[in-house]
What does this fold into?
Amino acid sequence: MKIWIIGGTKDSRNILDKILKIGGNKIIVSTATEYGGKLLGNVAKNENVHVISERLSILQIEEMILEENIDLIIDASHPYAKNISNTVISLVSYLNEKIIQEKELKYIRFERKMVDYGNKNIFKFQNLQEIIKFLRQFENKNVLSTLGSNTLAEIKEISEKNNLFVRILPTVSSIQSAEELGYLPKNIIAMQGPFSKNMNVVMLQDLKIDYLITKESGETGGELQKIEACQECGVTILAIKRPVLDYGTVFNTIEELMGYLIKL
It folds into this structure.
């Protein structure tokens, strides 16, 4: 079977590892960045694995599916990467209806389980702009963004009235982007996660954080440890709600997904 894994997450790396242990499959793994490809490590060197580390257009995706004769797409992209998911879902529907005649191209989604945030010191918002608007009512508060480097330009406004810290990857491009936008070195935390609860607690306490900005990313990637640290330190959580898409067939555990693959 020829499988395309939409990757770039720890989940996708774990899924790839499990599928390789079964054997008998040819796998293409795509990541939107070169960094995401590097995180695959030695598993990417397997002769049955081909890695694509670039952001693909819809035409490139269609060409790859048809030329590589893909049988199954496993969407293990980040819960907030809704654009790629929407694109692929629409394309699969089109190909099955108009192009592919001899078989059905299958699409399945791996969706991380949600973390139980509880109802104490937590506010949820539809988007980042709502969080920025919420924080305008305060002054001289210490705010920590854990959204990464992609939102650096948008959240910069928060620093006009409050003390904004940003936690980003320790890559040249991320740090350079922060500096070009005017972030001071003392407000840039360039570290590779996921972080333990203790590491988060130390960071929150040392920086005297009042508000932490995050996403409902799920159990994988240190989100639970981040939330537990905030609750222990009395830090208010400002979370962007997870997008809701009609994925069709969805699995929340790798075990369930592997059971599905074995039956195929």
Summary: The longest strand covers residues 26-31. The first helix runs from residue 10 to 22. The two ends are 9 Å apart (CA to CA).
